[in-house]
Amino acid sequence: MPVSRVLPESLRLFETREDPISAWIMGKSDAFHLTFLQWHSAEACHQWGIAGFEALGANAAPAIGELAGFLHDPSRSFDAIRCLAPIGHAAEAPVCAALTNESPEIRESAAGRLAWVCDDTAAYLKNFTNCLNDPVPMVRFAAIRGIGAQTNRPDFAIPILIETIQKYDRSISAMAISELAGFGTNAVGTVPLLSHIAMSGNALTRYAALRSLVAIAPVQALPIVLQFYRSGNAHRRSAAIEELRHYSVESLEIQAALEKPKTDNDFGIAHPVKDESIRPAATNELKDIDIPAATAAGIK
Amino acid sequence: MKTQPCFIGRLRWIGFLAVLVLSGVSAQADPIDLPEKPITPEVSFLIGSAILLEVICIWLILRRCRKPRFFILWLIGMHALTYPGFLGLLRLLLDMRPAFAVAIGEGLVVIVEGWLIYLICTYFSSAKTGRAAPSLSKCWLASLIGNLCSAVAFPVLTIIYEAFIHL
Fold first, then answer.
1. Which residue of A has its CA nearest to B36?
2. What is the pLDDT of residue B146?
C-alpha cells in the first residue's frame, strides 16, 4: 500500500474514539453471540494508528501538524509523542515543546524520546539539561534512559553521559553510569572514569560503576571485582559476588570466590550463592583470557 | 481345561470393547454446568417486535395506496431477504466503526426495501380496487420512516425486555 494511503489511514485510526452507539452495538453483538461480527474497539484502532506511525517513520512527516495538535489533548498527547518521535528531526519542534507540558507523564515521554528527534548535539544538550533540571524525578530518569537507548550512536551518546556523570551527583550520575553498560565495548574509553568511581565514588555510584565496568570491560574489571570481594564491607562483598556470576567459573579463583560465601555469616551474601536456581549460566567471556595474570596485574 | 484360556481371552475382548464403547460415557460424566443466560427469547422478541413495528409503520403510510392481499405478510416475508442481507453487509463493513457501518447498512436497507415494496405494490396487487399503486419515492419514504421507527425502538425494546419480560 502506498504511503499516500497509509498515512491518512494511520491518522484516521489514531483519532478513533469510542462513541456510545458503537459501544452499544459491540455490546449487543457480543451478548447475542453474533460471532461473525468481530468489531474492532476504538482502543484497538488507536493502537493500530500508533503502529502505523511507528512503521512509517520519517514518511509520516506530512502529519506532524495534525499530531502536534493532539499535544493539547490530554487523552491523546502521550501517544502523539509516540507517533512524532519515529518521524525524527522533522518532529523536533513539537517534541521539544512537549518538554514544557504541564503533565509530568507527557514531559517524561518527550524526555525519553528527545534523542530520536534531535540530530544536533548542541540543541540536544540544551533540551537534555532542561530535562535534568525538571522537578519530577521520572522526567530526569527518562531523559537519561533516552540517551542510554541510543546504543547505535555511541559517539553522540557516550560524551553526553560522561558529562552528566561529571556534572551531576548521586541518583542522576548513578543512572548515567548504569546506562553506559548498554554500549558495551563501545564505551571502553570510560573504563578509567568508571574504575575511579568504583573505587572512590559514593554508595550509589560505586556499585553502578562496578556493574557497568563488568559489562564494558570484564577483564579490566576483574581486579576491582576481586578487590570488592576481599573487602571487609558486606555490601561490597555482596556486589562483588553478584558480578562474579558474569564470569566463567572455569577460573579457580572465581570458583573459590563463589564457593567461600556459602559459609559467610552474612545471610545476604551466603543466601544467593546457596540458591542455585537463581544463579545464571556462566558466560564464556573470559575463556581465552589468562585470568591469573590479569588478577596478578591488578591485585597485590 | 482347554476352554479356560479361550474363555478368559473372550472375556478380555469383551472388557476391551466395553472400555472402548463406554469411554465416551465417562468423558461426558459430570460436566460442569455453566449458567448462561438464554439469548433466543430476547433475540426473537427484539427482532420480531422491531420488524412488526416497521411493518405497521409502512402499512399505515401506504394504507390509501393499492396493495396486494396480506400486505403485512408480504412485508414480513421481505425481511427474510433484507435482514440476512443487512447482517452480511455488516460483515463486510467490520473495518468501520460499528455506528457508521450500521448507518450505511440501514441506508441501503431503506433503498432496497423501498424498491421491493414498490415492486410488490405494482406487480402483485390487484388493479380492481381502483386505487393507484404508490410511487417509488413514496415507497422509499415509507421504508425510511419504518426503518427509523424500528431502529429507534430497538434500544427501547431492549430496555423493556430487560426490565419487564426477563425478570
1. A31
2. 95
Mean pLDDT of chain B: 85
In a domain, A184, yes or no: no
pLDDT at A234: 83
At A178-216, the pLDDT tens digits run: 999 999 889 888 899 999 888 887 888 888 998 999 899
For chain A, which residues lie within 8 Å of any Cβ of chain B, measuring from their own Cβ?
16, 19, 21-22, 24-26, 28-29, 31-34, 36-40, 42, 45
Contacts with B50 from chain A: Cβ below 8 Å: none
Q: How far is residue A215's CA from residue A292's CA, in Å, rounded to a whole number?
A: 20
Q: Give the three cell numbers for residue B35.
A: 449458567
Give the ranges where chain B is alpha helix by DSSP (H): 3-27, 40-61, 71-92, 98-123, 136-160
Residue B107 inside a domain? The answer is yes
- Does A112 map to a domain? no
The verdict on residue A198 lying in a domain is: no
B9's CB contacts (< 8 A; 6+ apart) are none
Residue B86 falls inside a structural domain: yes
Nearest Cβ partner for A25 among B43, B95, B102: B102
Q: What residue numbers bound the domain in which A237 lies?
A: 221-300
* B126 found inside a domain: yes
Q: How many domains does chain B have?
A: 1
List the domain range (segments joined by +) for residue B91.
53-165
CB neighbour list of residue B165: distance below 8 Å, 6 or more residues apart = B41, B45
Q: Say if the ipTM goes beyond 0.95.
A: no
Global pTM reads 0.65
Domain count within chain A = 1
Task: Identify which of A22, A31, A33 has the shortest CB distance to residue B99.
Answer: A22
Residue A297 lies in a domain: yes
Q: Does some domain include residue B103?
A: yes
CA closest to A34 among chain B residues: B87
**pLDDT tens-digit series, residues A128-141:** 888 888 888 889 88
Do residues A71 and A54 make contact, with C-beta atoms less than 8 angstroms apart?
Answer: no
Distance, in Å, from the CA atom of B139 to the CA atom of B126, rounded to the nearest integer, reads 18
d(CA A296, CA A135): 47
Cβ contact A19–B99 (<8 Å): yes
